[in-house]
């Protein structure tokens, strides 16, 4: 809803066109429009007034401010009679470019032309008191003669011509600078094209070399996997036989051994068991590297799995200073491979128990952002930050670290990370020397 008009007048004769032009410029100046916008508004009013006056009927002109949203100067020119809106809209099409919006409508009381020009953001605030001051000033405004208005128009035309001339000179200067820049750009483009062509040839040669090296690496990796698999497979039988023979020698049905012989046989059996563990780890790792492990997806009961891990690993806790804690899972069911998931968790728990002298080893699981996070936290010796990625390399063991119980092969963590990848997740570690380690296995809840 618009406020009370700032000014009203009526177009009756041709001289009123000069008056409405002057009045439009004064209103535009008073409400804060810039000089060029004042000229545009005055020119639009005079042109619309000339077209409407040509019909021979009086025209009411009202100036007002639209205060809602962006303050806008509105000019309404109403003329009695109907059916002329379409014709007027065609005649005033070019005039509409001088203002922000122009509407020509046929109403019940006649034809109405509405023009609007938004006030700039820096215009003075139009408070009610300021609006009253503008009304008083416009009431006291004395229109000049047509000659005065013609002089003002000429001055505005001269100003506009000066601005056009200055813009033309600026444009000519910019064109000269642009032409000079274009010549430099073309020279630089030609130079860069030559350098790029040479670089491309080098890149192509480099890619060819990289492809060759990649093929060699793949072949070496496949050969290593085949070697590990074959050697591991061939070693299992004799190692198993050694363990069996050692068991027979110490069996109650065999000839009794001396204490020294019994000690030597126990040493052989222990060494053979350690060797069999290493062989099995090598075989599992070779299978994972060769991509021969396919997950068997099913609904895994985590509560039952945690109970089984608690039972099978409790015999490894041989020191009263260490406590194995398996929390009740807050996530009851997970779609995964039960065997592979249990293998990863077993490796993590076994590794934690080996390097924890006092305190606890804790297993827990929680849902987070659509995934499941299995956490194995211990209070062991900890791992320096710069070595936390190296522990996932085959056969690598942290320098100076000694397992409290059992022996490590350096293959459990690499195998666990590979299985985590096969299950569609990842395995990371957070640790600090003297503060223990936390291994986090993150898997999708649904595969």
Automatic annotation (TrEMBL):
Enumerate the GO terms in the molecular function aspect. Answer: phosphorelay sensor kinase activity
In the UniProt record, the signal sequence range is none
Q: Name one GO cellular component term.
A: plasma membrane
Domain annotation Histidine kinase: ranges: 230-447
Localization: Cell membrane
Name of the protein this chain belongs to: histidine kinase
| Listed SUPFAM superfamilies | ATPase domain of HSP90 chaperone/DNA topoisomerase II/histidine kinase, Homodimeric domain of signal transducing histidine kinase
Alphabetically list the UniProt keywords: Coiled coil, Kinase, Phosphoprotein, Transferase, Two-component regulatory system
Supply the CDD domains for this chain: HATPase_EvgS-ArcB-TorS-like, HisKA
Its source organism is Actinoplanes utahensis
**Enzyme Commission number(s) from the entry:** 2.7.13.3
Chain segments annotated as coiled-coil in the UniProt record: 147-209
What catalytic reaction does the record list? ATP + protein L-histidine = ADP + protein N-phospho-L-histidine
Recorded hits in InterPro entries, A to Z, give: HATPase_C_sf, HATPase_dom, His_kinase_dom, HisK_dim/P_dom, HisK_dim/P_sf, Sensor_HK_Regulatory, Sig_transdc_His_kin-like_C
Entry keyword annotation includes Heme: no
Q: Does the keyword Lipoprotein apply?
A: no
Q: Name one Pfam family in it.
A: HATPase_c
């Amino acid at each position: 809803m618009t406020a009370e008009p700032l000014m009203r007048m009526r177009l009756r004769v041709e001289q009123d066109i000069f008056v409405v032009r002057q009045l439009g410029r004064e209103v535009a100046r008073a409400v804060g429009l810039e000089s060029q916008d004042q000229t545009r508004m005055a020119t639009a009013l005079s042109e619309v007034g000339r077209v409407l006056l040509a019909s021979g009927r009086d025209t009411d002109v009202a100036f007002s401010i639209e205060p809602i949203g962006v303050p806008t100067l509105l000019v309404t020119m109403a003329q009695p009679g109907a059916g002329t809106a379409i014709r007027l809209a065609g005649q005033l099409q070019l005039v509409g470019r001088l203002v922000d919006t122009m509407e020509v409508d046929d109403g019940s009381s006649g034809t109405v032309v509405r023009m609007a020009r938004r006030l700039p953001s820096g215009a003075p605030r139009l408070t009610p008191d300021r609006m009253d001051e503008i009304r008083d000033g416009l009431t006291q405004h004395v229109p000049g003669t047509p000659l005065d208005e013609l002089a003002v128009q000429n001055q505005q035309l001269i100003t506009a011509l000066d601005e056009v001339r200055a813009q033309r000179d600026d444009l000519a200067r910019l064109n000269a600078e642009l032409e000079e820049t274009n010549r430099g750009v073309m020279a630089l483009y030609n130079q860069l094209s030559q350098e790029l062509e040479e670089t491309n040839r080098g890149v192509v040669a480099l890619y060819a070399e990289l492809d060759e090296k990649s093929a060699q690496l793949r072949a070496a990796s496949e050969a290593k996997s085949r070697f590990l698999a074959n050697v591991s497979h061939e070693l299992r039988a004799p190692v198993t036989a050694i363990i069996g023979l050692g068991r027979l020698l110490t069996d109650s049905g065999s000839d009794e051994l001396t204490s020294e012989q019994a000690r030597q046989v126990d040493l052989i059996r222990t060494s053979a068991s350690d060797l069999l563990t290493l062989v099995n780890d090598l075989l599992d790792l070779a299978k994972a590297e060769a991509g021969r492990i396919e997950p068997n997806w099913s609904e895994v009961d985590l509560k039952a799995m945690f109970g089984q891990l608690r039972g099978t690993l409790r015999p490894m806790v041989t020191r009263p200073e260490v406590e194995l804690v398996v929390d009740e899972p807050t996530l009851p069911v997970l779609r995964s491979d039960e065997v592979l998931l249990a293998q990863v968790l077993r490796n993590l728990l076994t590794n934690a128990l080996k390097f924890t002298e006092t305190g606890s080893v804790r297993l827990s699981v929680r849902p987070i952002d659509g995934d499941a996070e299995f956490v194995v936290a211990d209070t062991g010796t900890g791992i320096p930050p710069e070595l936390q990625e190296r522990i996932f390399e085959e056969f690598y063991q942290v320098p100076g670290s000694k397992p409290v119980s059992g022996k490590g092969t350096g293959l459990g963590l690499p195998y666990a990370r590979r299985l985590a990848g096969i299950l569609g997740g990842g395995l990371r570690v957070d640790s600090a020397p003297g503060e223990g380690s936390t291994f986090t296995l993150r898997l999708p809840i649904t595969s």
